[in-house]
Amino acid sequence: MKKLFVIFAAIAMVGAFAATTMAADWAFYGSIRFATWYDMSDNGDVIPANGQEDDAGLNWSMQGNSRIGGKVSGGDVSGHFEMGTYKEDFDSDGVSDSQNMDVRILWGTYDFGGWTFSAGQNYTLVNNWTSVQVWGDDNGLLFNGALYGSRKQQVQLDFGMFKLALIETASSQVIYDDTDVILPKIEASFGIPVGEGSIGIKGGFNMFTNETFDGDDSEDIMAYVLSADGFHGFGPIYFNWSAFWAQNYGNYGLYSGGNFTTGINGAVATAAGDIEDSTAFGGTVVVGGAISEVLRWEAGVGYIQFENDAVGSDAESMISPYGQMKYNFAKSFYVVPEVGAFMYGDDQNGDSYGQDYYVGAQWRMDF
After folding, report:
1. Partner of 96 at 20 to 30 A CA spacing, among 75, 189, 268, 355?
2. How far apart are CA 240 and CA 288, in angstroms?
3. pLDDT digits over 130-153, tens only?
4. What are 274-289's pLDDT values in tens digits?
């Protein structure tokens, strides 16, 4: 009798799950993004000292942010999952011979009516999505002017225009041996509709304690960021912008590209044993528009600057201009020719980091 009861209970659970699944609305999607770039590097005065001369080469590969995913909704509960590609297992010639998958987004939301609660892994609130620069796996100026905190594990409260998130704490660029985390990273954003666009105000705070194994030295590393971004439409033309200021940008867990002095974007221990915080600021300006139903254009520039007195008295910066055209062969199949540059400026000693240039195109099919 007991075994029969267990069997009936299992059948009932499977039936209930199947009924719930059938009642939910599912929508699957995918995106194949293929990179065809010719990259050129002028390594300036700094990098050649390490044995690396000027270089050029072809990048012909599927982008690491190609993805498949789906969204599901059923009543007050909804979900979103997304898997992305990445390369692994390099041959003896240094070329990757396999394409693998990892989790980009795994996100669940409950609608309480008027506000929502979400949990899982998703993009953080401080990201600035002002650009659609496609080089570098859709770089979008995110590493050189626009803020990018990536996709992190978090819980998030959404009250319409106001959002609040508690995120896994970043503890990168530690100074001593051991890291203790007391609080999650805290981020908030507020959106304001303005005409045919919007303005967003964003901020975040991250703190962790770093100490030696013997406990003799201990420091609280505090990092925070403030930013604003705007999206504006003027008929067939759009204008996007962003600006930010940050303390200990790297310790916050933000990402940057470029050839910068090690440690200049995070807290550094001085010779006297004190902690010197770094400062950073930057921004983006992007303009674009439609030429026809199948052709559009965009041009933009990003700027980012770091400074830390423990490393040197001079700031280090990078300017990143680009321009692109987008041609749609069909609704979900298009090519984006693009040209751009990364001008790195000088290091703390006044030596040039040089420049990187690229030209080519991204080929993309969405389904």
Report:
1. 355
2. 9
3. 999 999 999 999 989 999 999 999
4. 788 999 999 999 999 9
Q: How many residues does the chain have?
A: 367
C-alpha distances in Å from residue 307, one per residue of 37, 207, 250, 257: 32, 20, 12, 15
**Cα separation, 32 vs 367, whole angstroms:** 9
Q: Which domains does the chain have, with CATH numbers?
A: 2-366 (2.40.160.10)
pLDDT of residue 152: 95
Q: What percent of the chain has pLDDT over 90?
A: 62
pLDDT score for 16: 41
From CA 248, how far away is CA 309, in angstroms rounded? 12
Mean pLDDT lowest for which of 72-86, 225-239, 251-265?
251-265
Three-state helix/strand/coil letters over the chain: CHHHHHHHHHHHHHHHHHHHHHHCEEEEEEEEEEEEEEEEEECCCCHHHHCCCCEEEEEEEECCCCEEEEEEEECCEEEEEEEEEEEEEECCCCCEEEEEEEEEEEEEEEECCCCEEEEEEEECCCCCCCCCCCHHHHCCCCCCCCCCCCEEEEEEEEECCEEEEEECCCCCCCCCCEEECCCCEEEEEEEEEECCEEEEEEEEEEEEEEECCCCCCEEEEEEEEEEEEEEEEECCEEEEEEEEEEECHHHHCCCCCCCCCCCCCCCEECCCCCEECCEEEEEEEEEEEECCCCEEEEEEEEEEEEECCCCCCCCEEEEEEEEEEEEEEECCEEEEEEEEEEECCECCCCCECCEEEEEEEEEEEEC
- Considering only CA atoms, which of 109, 121, 116, 117 is closest in space to residue 82? 121
What pTM did the predictor assign?
0.86
Whole-angstrom distance, CA of residue 302 vs CA of residue 342: 9
pLDDT, residue 11, reads 36
Q: Letter for the amino acid at 86?
A: Y
**pLDDT average, residue stretch 293-306:** 97
CA–CA distance, 22 with 3 (Å, rounded to integer): 29
Count of C-beta atoms within a 10 Å radius of residue 21: 11
Half-sphere CA count of 228, side-chain side, radius 13 A: 4
